[in-house]
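Quick one: co-fold with adenosine-5'-triphosphate.
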Amino acid sequence: MEVVFKNVTKRYGKTVAVGNLNLTVKSGALHFLLGPSGCGKTTTLRMLAGLESVTEGQILFDGKDVTRLPAADRGIGMVFQNYALWPHMTVLKNIEYGLKLRKLPKSEIESRIKEVLHITQLTRFVDRLPGQLSGGQQQRVALARALAIRPNVLLLDEPLSNLDAKLRHEMRDNISRIHKKTGITTVYVTHDQKEALSMGSDISIMHSGILVQTAPPRELYKNPESPFVAGFIGETNIIHGTYKGKDGNDHLVDTALGVIRSERKFGDFKAGSGVFISIRPESVELALKQSPNETNCFEMTLSHLTYLGDSEQLQFTKGDTVIKANLFNALDHGLSDGDGARVRFPKDATLVLPPDMQLGAGT
Ligand code: ATP
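Sure, here it is.
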């Protein structure tokens, strides 16, 4: 089932919780909504489910307008962070409940329960009460219950945030596996970028009620379209500068470190406009000796070094500019805190970005 938000706005009084959202969730996708607290993720999910009215715009399921369709008629399965299981009912009864409400024949109920217990690997816990299960197992019951109704769309709202780190990892694998097996269009809300990067087929980043970018994980990491997305997905160094124009294939940006050359940019800039350079810490290089390639080499001071065995994290400063570098399998450079050093930004790893748009909506 494909889900489309067309110019969807949700207002609470004067607060714009979601502003003019245009978003397509492809059929069969595991689509993440990611963003800081209060950016409108849950509101978007609740409008999709029919639990929240839409102020303006339309929601389409496979092209059919469902904007005014009651929640019960949308065929949505939901899983929340607090599981919302019936504590006095066994695993079996919890899963069965929704199927009985739908007045399905007994044989159909039995076969569906068997199927979802198998998919979620809960068959041996069928007679237990929720209180006799671990957090991860309880979350799998919530998932089994949502899957049993064979939803058109499955909605997951921070499903792992009550679990400890180890269980979260296990459940990530479980959810990915179950998603692959069922192929149900799934919308997953989180503020954990690792969850989104490791599991998502697409990720939408929201900020202050606005959708700022949608792309598959690798694309989003490699080609963020704004400093906000570059910093929110993974870590990055952001350097402010002034666009000077082109020299061959290179875009030149004047910064406090000097002129930085970049082969990549997003947006169109006039000479003199304010821009930002983004470079990931793992792309920053140490330029130990004078080398023939002096492009984008800058003298800085090593202000802090953290040795981690397989890698090192270095922090360089010059004036107000701070640059972080993650070096993997670094050669023995002999540098320590306070030493002068030269860093290099490979031209193909620097990206020129426009300033973040004015994100006035929301809070
Ligand atoms: P979190 O990650 O903290 O759950 P979120 O991204 O899911 O945040 P929403 O819960 O969708 O954000 O809220 C978006 C904005 O709408 C916030 O500014 C919030 O305060 C506001 N909001 C949400 N629900 C209501 C409501 N019922 N009445 C008034 N304002 C609301």
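If it helps, The chain has two domains: 3-227, 235-353.
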